[in-house]
UniProtKB/TrEMBL annotation:
<keyword id="KW-1133">Transmembrane helix</keyword>
<keyword id="KW-0472">Membrane</keyword>
<dbReference type="InterPro" id="IPR024449">
    <property type="entry name" value="Anti-sigma_RsgI_N"/>
</dbReference>
<keyword id="KW-0812">Transmembrane</keyword>
<keyword id="KW-0175">Coiled coil</keyword>
<dbReference type="InterPro" id="IPR055431">
    <property type="entry name" value="RsgI_M"/>
</dbReference>
<feature type="transmembrane region" description="Helical">
    <location>
        <begin position="65"/>
        <end position="84"/>
    </location>
</feature>
<dbReference type="GO" id="GO:0005886">
    <property type="term" value="C:plasma membrane"/>
</dbReference>
<feature type="domain" description="RsgI N-terminal anti-sigma">
    <location>
        <begin position="2"/>
        <end position="50"/>
    </location>
</feature>
<protein>
    <submittedName>
        <fullName>Anti-sigma factor domain-containing protein</fullName>
    </submittedName>
</protein>
<feature type="coiled-coil region">
    <location>
        <begin position="167"/>
        <end position="194"/>
    </location>
</feature>
<keyword id="KW-1003">Cell membrane</keyword>
<dbReference type="Pfam" id="PF12791">
    <property type="entry name" value="RsgI_N"/>
</dbReference>
<dbReference type="Pfam" id="PF23750">
    <property type="entry name" value="RsgI_M"/>
</dbReference>
Length: 229
């Protein structure tokens, strides 16, 4: 006869832990059993061999803790990712009338930075709210509305929106941004009853424009006017 400590009781069987550290199962004979009670048994079914020790208990606990921490990190990451904004500049968009502004856009065409190129541009920018990490179409609407409010659209000159892609070989980004700016022209500019033209420049043209203290939109517009004259 062997002895073991009862650790689980089912209708048909009883699971015991033997002094050797083995988990065994024996038949339930319908007697009165208590968890933790020592009992004798014969012909057991060995469930698992191995010494039961504090070390094995701590190992199991450590594995459980690691799994729990990993799960928590995964949950926190999945929640946080939508709120982490892409801060790399993928393109530049300028809006010019008498006021001049240039915006930097990320891969999702959200505005991540804005720079005024004259005092009128600074005055427009000062009155804009919640533009950062907002889509270019929405920011363009805010800028044009504020320019109109401050009287910068009351001229015979068209509103100029210019775009420059950082990676000029990225046709997909170019097409996507072009689509957004055409939507600005057809929906927002027409709603404000503003004559607007959209032009596209290169990084080289933008560099020359910045060196001359102006946006690529005004730089290209003035170059085109000179060529026409």
């Amino acid at each position: 006869m062997k002895k073991g400590v009862i650790i689980d009781i089912d209708l048909d069987s009883i699971t015991l832990l033997t002094p050797d550290g083995d988990f065994v199962k024996t038949s339930n004979k319908g007697q009165s059993y208590l968890i933790g009670e020592e009992m004798e048994f014969t012909s057991p079914e060995t469930l698992r061999k191995g010494r039961f020790s504090l070390r094995s208990s701590f190992t199991a606990l450590n594995r459980g803790a690691i799994l729990l921490v990993t799960l928590l990190i995964a949950i926190i990451t999945s929640i946080a990712i939508p709120f982490i904004h892409d801060t790399k500049t993928y393109s530049y968009v300028s809006i010019d009338t008498e006021s001049s502004l240039e915006m930097k856009l990320n891969s999702e065409n959200n505005v991540i930075d804005m720079v005024p190129f004259n005092q009128a541009g600074a005055a427009v920018m000062d009155n804009l709210k919640e533009w950062k990490n907002t889509h270019i179409k929405d920011v363009a609407a805010m800028v044009i509305a504020e320019m109109n409010e401050q009287g910068y659209l009351e001229t015979n000159e068209p509103l100029v929106i210019a775009a420059v892609i950082n990676n000029e070989k990225d046709n997909e980004s170019y097409d996507q941004l072009q689509s957004e700016l055409l939507a600005v022209k057809s929906e927002i500019a027409e709603a404000e009853e503003v004559d607007m033209k959209v032009i596209y420049g290169t990084l080289t043209e933008r560099k020359l424009a910045v060196e001359n203290g102006t946006t690529v939109g005004l730089y290209k517009s003035s170059s085109q006017d000179e060529q026409e004259n």
